[in-house]
Amino acid sequence: MTALAVGTPNGLAAPRRHWAALAVGLAVTVSVLDGAMIHIAAPVIARDLGVNPGTAIWIVSSYQLAAAIALLPIGKLADVLGRRRVYLTCLALFVAGACISAIAPTLDTLAAARFAQGLGGAGILGVTNAILRDIYPRDRLARGIGLNSFVVAIAIASGPMIASLLMAAGSWRMLFLVAVPVGALLLVIGALALPPANRTTERIDFWSFPLSAAAFGTALTTINNLAHGGAVLWCIAGGLASFAAFAALLVRQRKAIAPLLPTDLLRIRAYATAVATMFAASIAQLIGYLATPFLLQRDAPRDLLEVGFIFTCWPIAVAAASPFASRVPGVPPRVACGLGLVIFACGLAALALSPAQASTFDLCWRMALCGAGYGFFQPANSAALASSVPIARAGSAGSLAACGRVVGQACGAAIAAFLFRWNAHDGIAAALSVAAIAALGAAAISGMRD
């Protein structure tokens, strides 16, 4: 197969284009399914490994920590070293992490393997849109990105039910094992079909990479240590180290021609507000995603299939509500986002106030309310992010926004861990209440848009 030149309006010729799109779509599906399934499995993994719910959150926190550290450097490496090379390397790392996770005997081993998966997952999700630009002709690019977004929505919606079926048929280790053969096949298809990317002539500022990793890594590690009752002196030291790393990174970025951390974009009020809104909303979303599976098992054990069915109401409502956000004419982003976030907060509050022994229907409508609110907010905020910056800076703007989302999710995981550790039973309702407050805070930030 011969690829057409990258950056031309012709993209790849069929059938290579179809194979390349299949490889990217399945890779994104595997990565998104992993995140969608792990929330359902967290209570089961905690019981199987003999750890409390707060400690089990490290399964999610380690992944989020790795993604936050890797997202900005991987985006830059993809531009300089070539997108296909970086994409396939990250996919291989994700598959290797899944393999180790499937056989992990302890939580420490599982958390380390999840960290490796987070590094790989950051590359898969962070480079996908750039690779799609190389695959599709310009007149078909919108359709290609839309198809990929639809695949993501289906993966998120089906993840809880697939997780329940796999755990009912075997164990939680099956959630990781299924990614191994699929990932191996995708590596072969990707090596043959993905387009070779033109490399930029930009020099890599290698000093920015460790500074970025140290800044984000120490910050999120310190937050997680606080959440898990770490030693106060270590937490203070971590906070000081994070502050120093961020200061050094910002000083270096001011001198860089192509900065790794494009903080200058935050001077654009509409963009900065959209990023801040996404950060706060991501805190609420992740807390809700982590607390809900424990809520469903809090008062009485439920069948895994029933848990999966109830949890699926949230992502299905997201997929159902998302199209309406872009079809309401003349509604400014602050109104659409604010309305969606208020509905989202109401759903989280309804879950926090759900009665003991609540019926399946009673829980389903509360989950659907959360999903409908978030589904109405997300497209409107994403459109505001994309339209508020010059098109030449769209790539940097997307990386910074994705970083804000991942950091928000990591903070949400830490807050949930702290509240679960405080009280394994009442901490669930407290976490959902905090999530509702965070969603209302996001709505208030959204209202500050121009």
Write the layout of secondary structure elements.
Layout lengths: L15 H34 L3 H4 L1 H24 L1 H21 L3 H29 L5 H29 L4 H4 L1 H15 L14 H20 L4 H24 L13 H28 L7 H22 L7 H20 L7 H28 L6 H29 L3 H21 L4
Helix pairs in contact: 1-5, 1-6, 1-8, 1-11, 3-4, 3-5, 3-9, 3-15, 4-5, 4-8, 6-12, 9-10, 9-15, 11-13, 11-14, 11-15, 11-16, 12-14, 13-14, 13-16, 15-16
Describe it for me?
By secondary structure, this protein is an all-alpha fold. It has 3 domains: 1-195, Growth Hormone, Chain: A (Up-down Bundle), CATH 1.20.1250; 207-261, no CATH class; 264-450, Growth Hormone, Chain: A (Up-down Bundle), CATH 1.20.1250.20. It has 16 helices and no strands. The protein has helices at residues 16-49, 53-56, 58-81, 83-103, 107-135, 141-169, 174-177, 179-193, 208-227, 232-255, 269-296, 304-325, 333-352, 360-387, 394-422, 426-446. Helix 3 packs antiparallel against helix 15 (394-422) and helix 12 runs parallel beside helix 14 (360-387).
